[in-house]
Amino acid sequence: MNYFSPGFGEIIRWIQRARHRVRRLLARRSLAKAEALLGLLGWQQADFDPETQREVDAIQNVEREQAALNNRAAEVAADIHTLGEERAKVRAEFDRQRATLEAERNRVREPLIEIERILSERGAEVERLLAALDREEHERDAVYRKLLGVNPQTPQVRDEILHVRERLTSIPIEKTDLKAQQLHATTGAQERTAIEQRTAELDRQLRDLAAVAGEQDASFATRIKALEKEHSLADSQSTRLERAKLDPYREIGRVLAASGVAPLNQPQALTRVHNLQCAIRDSDDAIAASLADTAAEDPSSLRLSLGLWTVIAIAVALIVGALL
């Protein structure tokens, strides 16, 4: 008795049945598409029974609804395009106005550098004079104290004391005058104040302009987003309706195939449906024949043989795993 042949034959049949099942699955999928295409091409050229006519009516209803959705989607797309153009124009106008204000601001502030330089130099000169007066005051005070200690005091010494005292008295007055002149100086300071005021006004205009532009752009964005949502919804509904027509088309295609009615413009659509139906029947027949061959085998011998092949497969797997 050959213990290997029954199991080997059954394994071959398993493989063949799996191959036929895959072919049948692919053929059924292709058949569904082919029947739907046949129904799409030929539904208007044949008279149907009441049940099939209801499928035709359903298709017509769906197409009317789909046409309305497509028209609305086209209108919404046009509105989105128009809003996009208006938004671009508003942005361009904002950019133009902002550029004008920024150019004016730069022009107004251009003299500020020279004014700051003049004021800085003037302040530095005042500070230099004040420092010189401080040094002179310190030196004069030292001389005055020294002259007071001279004994006897000659007329010449007394005259020198009077001269130094007069200078010590005038130095604080000069320092006060310098500080007052620096505090009340108007040349340059008034111009700087005017520039700062004009700059602040231009900055306020820029902020107001940006705020208005931001509100306008946000409004455009909200409206466009709402329209895009509506457009997307219309597209999804149209796609859903398109898929909904597949079942009626397929039912009509089955009736046309059974009646042998081919579309006038594409008769090959009917041939493809028949070919796919034949392919499915061939796979069914092949699977049935393979199952019959399996049933004809002795069950005990078949189980024993499959058990031996299982042991062999496990041993080979273990050997390969050990080698790897």
Portion in strands: under 5%
Number of helices: 8
Radius of gyration: 52 Å
Mean pLDDT: 83
Structural class of the helices, strands and pairings? mainly alpha
**Given the C-alpha coordinates, what overall shape results?**
elongated
Could you spell the SSE succession in H and E letters?
HHHHHHHH
Distance between the termini: 36 Å
- Please give the share of residues in helix: over 70%
Largest sheet: none
Low-confidence stretches: none
Quick one: how many beta strands?
0
Description:
With 324 residues, this protein is mainly α. 89% of the residues lie in helices and 0% in strands. The protein has 8 helices and no strands. It has helices at 5-42, 50-109, 112-148, 155-184, 189-244, 246-259, 268-296, 299-323. Helix 1 (5-42) packs across helix 8 (299-323) and helix 3 runs antiparallel to helix 4. The longest helix is centred in the N-terminal third of the chain and has 60 residues, at 50-109.
Describe what is shown at a glance.
The chain has 324 residues and is mainly alpha-helical. The chain contains 8 helices and no strands.
Secondary-structure blueprint of this entry?
Blueprint: H1 5-42, H2 50-109, H3 112-148, H4 155-184, H5 189-244, H6 246-259, H7 268-296, H8 299-323
Helix pairs in contact: 1-6, 1-7, 1-8, 2-5, 2-6, 3-4, 3-5
List key phrases describing it:
single chain, 89% helix, mainly alpha, elongated, 324 residues, 8 helices
